[in-house]
Amino acid sequence: MKTLARERDQAEILARLGQLRPDAVRRWGRMSVHQMVCHLADANRMALGRKSATAPCGLLQRTVVKWVALYAPMRWPPGIVTSPELDQLGMVATPPADFAADLAEVQALLRVMLADARKLTLPHPVFGPMSVRAWLRWGYLHTDHHLRQFGA
Asked: What are the residue boundaries of the structural domains of the chain, listed by start?
């Protein structure tokens, strides 16, 4: 089970991020690669408490959906809806600026998460309360999902 808690999985994710190019074509979804990079940055800001995100969070999402998403041996499918604050096609998310700078910001935010993972204590907008272990698993899966979206 891959997780950002393992150095080799961290290195894999950072290397795959480094392979992204501004002309990458999406395999599914509506975001451009640059929008996806900004979405990842916003999601990491959310995990660190630097950006708020809201979503309906009921008992089913906090239990069954959370377990399936984080621990079932399957890849996340295309078409998962995100919180409005993280939706690149909405009006609230961080807009793309300079691709290289935005990509460097995602990598820096991941490193901040890893350097002080014990600060990952906030609830997830869909999954509710999350342990550090769950946040690091989510961090790997979320980033992997979007990197696969662009063939990285």
From this structure: 7-149
123 Cβ partners below 8 Å, 6+ apart?
57, 129, 130
Using H for helix, E for strand and C for coil, what is the string for the chain?
Answer: CCCCCCHHHHHHHHHHHHCCCCCCCCCCCCCCHHHHHHHHHHHHHHHHCCCCCCCCCCHHHHHHHHHHHHHCCCCCCCCCCCCHHHCCCCCCCCCCCCHHHHHHHHHHHHHHHHHCHHHCCCCECCCECCCHHHHHHHHHHHHHHHHHHCCC
Predicted TM-score of the model (pTM): 0.92
CATH number of 7-149: 1.20.120
Q: How far apart are CA 73 and CA 70, in angstroms?
A: 9
Calculate ∠ Cα 144-150-152, nearest 5°: 60
pLDDT along the chain (152 residues), means of 10: 96 97 96 97 94 75 86 89 85 92 97 90 89 96 97 94
